[in-house]
Design a protein that fits this description.
The structure is a homodimer.
Chain A lengths: L9 E4 L8 H8 L4 E4 H9 L6 E3 L7 H6 L4 E2 L8 H11 L4 E5 L6 H16 L3 E5 L3 E7 L2 E4 L5 E6 L3 E6 L17 E2 L4 E7 L1 E7 L2
Parallel strand pairs in A: 1-2, 1-5, 2-3, 3-4, 5-6
Antiparallel strand pairs in A: 6-7, 7-13, 8-12, 9-11, 9-13, 10-12
Keywords (chains A, B): ATP-binding, Kinase, Nucleotide-binding, Transferase
Organism (chains A, B): Bacteroides acidifaciens
Pfam families (chains A, B): Thi_PPkinase_C, TPK_catalytic
């Protein structure tokens, strides 16, 4: 059963809006290792924190921080990936597998879409990564899985080619959705629910 | 050629974050007909505007507004659609075809995903609908199309089953992408670009 207890080995602070909800903020606060995408580093540092690594060319850093933190700026030249993925690849190389991403959404919507959909690719690489936003948790899943929930919890399922989708413990029936919106706005009935299928999908567990 | 000149016959103010960018605000200001989803109506009214219709059960309205605007609250009982789609269906029935949606993003990310992906379904219904956010414009497209752009403009293409994707006038090559992120973070080279393909896709034209 997948539940909210999730202690990541490392946390990525991505280039979206800085988190405001207590849960992503606490995950960031308690992180054992923090990789900042460089667009997020200024705010993280100015709030009194020190990242373990800054991923990017450092060009988004203030001149002062750029000098002070030059030793931890890690540049990855790859036009095929975005900064979030560069941070994931860096952490993967360091041996981290269980990662939380915060600050990945809330600015340009195409970046939001990209960052969320990448969870599917990370799963294929054997990584266990969750994106924690101000509104809930996104995770990628392969096949049948049971999730802890609370009655009335808002649940959205976004299909990435899964077949035979059936629900147990959700208000609205699932089917082999072909468009994203079709699996949104579902709701947990009780303390757990199960999704039956083969193949991959994203799930969003809202905090409410 | 698709360009920025877009005078919608009606505007939907959806339940996400109230727009802050001048372009969606101007579209809302100049709208000939405004349909407010009821979660957005309080703020629209308190800013001194009067919607032409409020779509929803009115439960999100303040008690004062609920009484004052009761005559324009239009309730559609349908558990299969969200408020944005209810507003689209209402406007379609009134004969509107060319619609701008503002305020559709910026809160719960699953709602953002749902609202954006619905543009594909609206296109299948013969509607011409654009979502204008604080960062750019989303539209649904079927087949080969040329778009007006400016050099360096950020462009993202999200594939909904289109085949034979090829670009003309973009920095990075297109292919038949299978995951959302693969078509993000492209860039226009000059004043126009063309996407060649058969089938449907979403395009995001950033303001920058």
């Amino acid at each position: 059963m997948i539940n909210e207890d999730y202690t990541p080995e490392a946390v990525i602070l991505a280039n979206g809006e800085y988190p405001t909800h207590t849960l992503p903020l606490r995950i960031l606060e308690e992180a054992k290792f923090v990789a900042c995408c460089d667009g997020a580093a200024n705010e993280y540092i100015s709030r009194g924190h020190t990242p373990d690594v800054i991923i990017g060319d450092g060009d988004s850093l203030s001149p002062e921080y750029k000098e002070r933190f030059s030793s931890i700026v890690h540049q990855i030249a790859d036009q095929e990936t975005n900064d979030q993925t560069k941070a994931v690849l860096f952490l993967q190389e360091k041996g981290f597998r269980k990662i939380a991403i915060v600050g990945a959404t809330g600015k340009r919507e195409d970046h939001t879409l990209g960052n969320i959909s990448l969870l599917i690719d990370y799963m294929k690489e054997g990584m266990e990564i969750r994106t924690i936003t101000d509104y809930g948790v996104f995770m990628s899943v392969n096949g049948t899985q049971t999730f802890e929930s609370h009655p009335g919890q808002q649940i959205s399922i976004i299909n990435f080619g899964a077949k035979g989708l059936k629900e147990e413990g959700l208000v609205y029936p699932l089917s082999d959705f072909t468009n994203w919106w079709q699996g949104t706005l579902n709701e947990a009935i009780a303390d757990e629910f199960t999704i039956h299928c083969t193949g991959e999908y994203l799930i969003f567990l809202a905090f409410v």
